Structures are given as C-alpha cells and as structure tokens.
Amino acid sequence: MTPSLRLRSALEGATDRLSVDPDRTTAVVAAMLGLDVVWWALLYGGHVPMPGMKWLMMTAEIPMAAPGAIERAVFHAGTLEAVVGYAITWGVMMWAMMQPAMTRFTREYAAAYRGSTTGAIRALASFLVSYYAVWLVSAFVPLLSNAVLPGGIYGFTREYTHLVIGGALVCTGLYQLSRFKRSLLRTCCESVAPHVDGPRRAVRRGLDHGVRCVLTCFGVFFLVMVFFGEMNLVWMVALTGVVTIERLPTWGEELAVGTGLVSIFAGVLVLVARPALPVAFVL
C-alpha cells in the first residue's frame, strides 16, 4: 500500500471513530450546554442590567460580591426599571447555575416526545421559556428579604455576621435533610413518561417543574447564596456543582443528605467558634 493510501485509510478510520449520530437527544444536550455558555458569558461580560452599580462601587464603596450588595443598589435606585433589571440579572444567574442540572431532564423530555422533530422543538422551547420565567419571578424572594430585614440583607448581615451566616448554614442543612426536600428531589429526578405535549401543555409542565426546582434549591440559593453574596464566583461554581450532582438519580439524594450534614456542622462551628469569615463588606 502506498503512503497516500495508508494516510487515506487512517483518516477514514479516525473519521469513523469520531462520527456522531446527530439524533434528537444529542442535539438537546449540545443546545443546553451552548445556552449555559451564553448565560455565563452574559453575566461575566457585564451584559446584564446592574441597577445602581455605579453608586454601589463608587459612592457606597461596597463590593459587588458582598451579601445583599445588589439588593441594596436596587433599593437605592428605587425605580421599577431597577427592579426589572435586577430580576433579569437574577434570572440569568439562576439559568446559568441551573442549566447543567436541567440538561438530563430536558434530554429525557425530548427523548420521550412521540412525534415529529418540529413538534419536539416546539414543546421543549415552550417548556424552557416557562421554566426560565419561574426563576425570573423568584427574584422577588431576595428582594422581599431585603425589604423586611432591618438594614436590608447587607446591613443585617454586616451587623450580625456570624449569627446570620451560621444560622443560614444550619437552616440550609436542616432543609437539605427534610423529607419535603428529598421528596421534591426524587420527583425532579423521575423518568419522563412518553408524551405528545403541545406548547400549552409544555408551558404548564415548565411552570410546574420550575416551581419544584425553586423549592428543591431553596436552602442552597435563597439562604446560603444570598447571605454569602450572589456575585461571589467561588460560591456560584460550588453551588452549581451541588445542585447538578444532587439530581443524579442513583446517588443524588445521598449528596443532598451529605451536604445537609456538612452545612449543619459548619453552621454550628460559625455560631460557636466565630472564626474569621471570607466575606468582605467594604472595598
């Protein structure tokens, strides 16, 4: 065999080994991963609304990653536009963190669709739009917390740092161990039955799944992340890993229990020993 024929044979063999069947589920996984890249790029490229950020950084001299910093900036602005901008920023942040956890479910949802590819695309798009909408609306949870706490999240956490952070960790741990949380986790990870959902039914399923996801992640996102600082990259990556792995059907519930126990231990340690905490309140 001549060198050119050998080279051609080798290239053909490599092509065969690397070939990918472009089926529906592969396309869904690729699209979900691509969307996740978009959400993270929007966040850290500064392409999401940041109401009051100039005042926060230049006048108040508060780090953007400080607990309650973003909420403080929104309340300082005090406009509907600021609230909408905050909801968009919060939504994109939640989409970025939840996208890996949702990839397996959306793959199964598309695979269970008994109809044309076009119908599957419409159903999945409708499902995701309503699911994302739920996370947008969930922005009002930290905003409400900021409204009712004396001094807002920032002022309250700065005043009672160890009490707030230790208490948030303990409460998160108890929530992780609760039957309510674990039942939600099992439901979230269940297999998708064969279906032919149209856009309306897909929207309803997306809303339902979104509410269950918010409740499943309540301790992780609305206690730990809010009181440690939403824009803290380390916490965002770590919590993304937690909510993704705990949705694995085989041992995700064990991870939820494990993180619950660790969270309670860490919370008690913070409350009792009062160690130095990696939380900055001023620039």
Q: What would you say this structure looks like, in words?
A:
The chain is mainly α and 283 residues long. The chain has one domain. It has 14 helices and no strands. The longest helix is centred in the middle third of the chain and has 32 residues. About 3% of the residues have low confidence.
List keywords for this structure.
mainly alpha; 283 residues; 76% helix
CA-based shape:
globular
SSE order: HHHHHHHHHHHHHH
Q: Round the Cα radius of gyration to an integer and report it.
A: 22 Å
Distance between the termini: 70 Å
Which stretches are low in confidence, meaning pLDDT under 50 for 5 or more residues running? 14-21
Please state the average pLDDT score. 88
